[in-house]
Each structure stands twice: as C-alpha cells, then as structure tokens.
C-alpha cells in the first residue's frame, strides 16, 4: 500500500499540488479532516459489505452496507464525502465556494488513499478483493453511463435534503441515516451502468487504483464520473430550489419566473 501511495504521489505531482492547495482553502478540522477521514471510513465500511462481512445472505449484505453508511457519517461528524453533494449544497447556499473546493479535494484525497489501503488489508488477511465503479465501453456506452450517473446522483441529493431537511424524521439520526442507506442501496441496484459511483471522488480514485496509482487519462472516465454527477447535482439543486423556494446560486427562481410570466401577460394584453 505504501508503495502504491508513493508511486501515486510521484506520478501525479501536479494533481497532488492542486489538491493540497484546494484543501488549504477550507477549515482544517471542519472541512478537510472530516471529509478526508469520512471518505476513508466510507470506503472501508461500504465497499467490503457483503464480501468481508454480512456474507450470509443478501439481507445481511444490506444490513452491513447500511451500518457502513451510518458509521461513516457518525465517525467523521456528518461529512459530505462527495464532491457532487458539495456542488449541490453550494448551489443552494449551504456552503461557501471555498468550502466546496476544500471539501471536494479532501474527499478525492481520502478516496485515493482508501482504495489501496483496504485492498492491501484484504490481501494480508486473505479476504476477497472488492471492486468499484468502472467504465468499460464494451459493457455500456458512455451515454448510458452518463445518464445513470447523473440521474442516480440527482436522486441521491434529493434524498439527502428530504431526509435531513423536510421530513418529520429529520431529527431522528438513526432513522434518517438508515433510510439514507436504503436510498443508496436502491440507487446502486437500479442504476448499474458503470458501477453507479454517484461520487466523482470514488469514480476517479478507483480508476487510479486500477492503474497502479496513475490518474486515468481517458476523457470518458471524467465525463462519466465527474461531469455526470455534477450535472445531476445541479439539476437536483435547481428542482429543489423551485419546489422549496430556496435560492439557486443566490437567485430567487420563483420570483424570476413570476417576473417573466407577468411580463409575458402584459405583452399579450397590449397586443
């Protein structure tokens, strides 16, 4: 594991410098450390679920995965652990631009460390190797993977705000996190093209892990696992802003639409 991380840093010096600079833009404890550790715990508890533990049946696998979702959130103190979710929250004005950048960079860094770390642990203990999100044009077209990633990420973001902001169970931590785990699991089952990352950090980091620590060079990898989740997150933020009355990048969309409708009505009346 140490050799892979060392090779990764050597082969991706520019990317590592950018990540370090981006991390420096946020608060170390609340933004960087929380996201970095949260991502490591996420990979270590959710990806091996059903392979290392919860192996008796699919029910046990679901329970193991659900516990992983709860543990990753609880241990790190409620991180986003997802650059797409950071984009979603920034669009709604919940976090600043600097927080979005630093949290996303920390999540990428955590994922880049987590995959070789836990695969090494698995090899040492003789456990089966777990996989990750992987784009292969022989299995699914880029258009299909893009559609699945964007849709699944958008639905994930909407589930997060419904369970944490809107529904009556928002104050019951265990219930809302358990339902979040169910939502994640259902999305993984429904949107299977490309492995359903719903998370740019996971998609890029697993691709780098498969290449021995080298970042993927194929543009399709970034289109599938960065552009698509970001687009899905922005689409979800737009829908939520329209339905809830929240501002979208500081703009009151309801008021904007009202002005447009009123102007159109006056034009028709004049005609």
What would your notes on this structure say?
This protein has 271 residues and is mostly helical. 72% of the residues lie in helices and 0% in strands. It has helices spanning 2-11, 13-23, 28-46, 58-76, 83-91, 97-125, 142-166, 173-190, 200-210, 219-244, 253-270. α3 runs antiparallel to α4 (58-76), α7 (142-166) runs antiparallel to α8 (173-190) and α7 runs parallel beside α10. The radius of gyration is 20 Å and the shape is globular. The model has no long low-confidence stretch (mean pLDDT 85).
Q: Count helical runs.
A: 11
**Helix and strand succession?**
HHHHHHHHHHH
**How many strands, which pairing sense, and closed or not: the largest β-sheet?**
none
Separation of the first and last Cα atoms: 73 Å
What is the molecular shape? Answer: globular
Characterize the quaternary organization of these chains: single chain
Low-confidence stretches: none
Give the tally of β-strands: 0
Using only C-alpha atoms, the radius of gyration works out to 20 Å
Work out the strand percent.
Answer: under 5%
**Which structural class best describes the helix and strand composition?**
mainly alpha
- The amount of helix comes to over 70%
The overall pLDDT average reads: 85
